[in-house]
Task: structure prediction
Amino acid sequence: MDNLLNTVPNYLTHFYRKGEKPFQNICDLDIQVAEKILKNDIEWRGDGTYLSARKQHEELLRSLFIKIGGKPIRKNPIYMILGDSPTGPHNLNTDYEVKVKLPLEIFKSDIISFTYPDSMYKISLSELDKLYLERNNSPRIYRLEELKDVIKKFEVYIHNNHYIEAQIWDDKPIKEFIMGKSL
Result:
């Protein structure tokens, strides 16, 4: 068990739906296109407020990341998770058919931030087995160097019921890795 608390997965996973392009952020799209996509996702994001809240939230994430030394290139991050998806209500394998894994080592510390348990929504650490939709107005941003401490403090892989979210603030490492893989 102690070994799990000191282990940082060496890869990130990006989930997306079949037929969609990977490594996209809905906030990068034209507002009409984004709203059309969200209307098809009524279960929890099609409430008419999600897109404006998401844009404001990503501005906050970006400014918080800059305050702790981050150097974001993108206005809006690409979302991934550290390691694999957990089981239970936060299992991303249930919502998305396709996933891509990238080595963590391709990202410099100043272009990647992390949140636990989620950046956009408040999730009670004592009730990680439930799904909460209350928006998180004060996310805590972590740097790559802090991951081991986060995993240990919150016993992330012992509870194994929520992911550590990664925000990628530069497309370049993703594009270079994918281009290198296709050679």
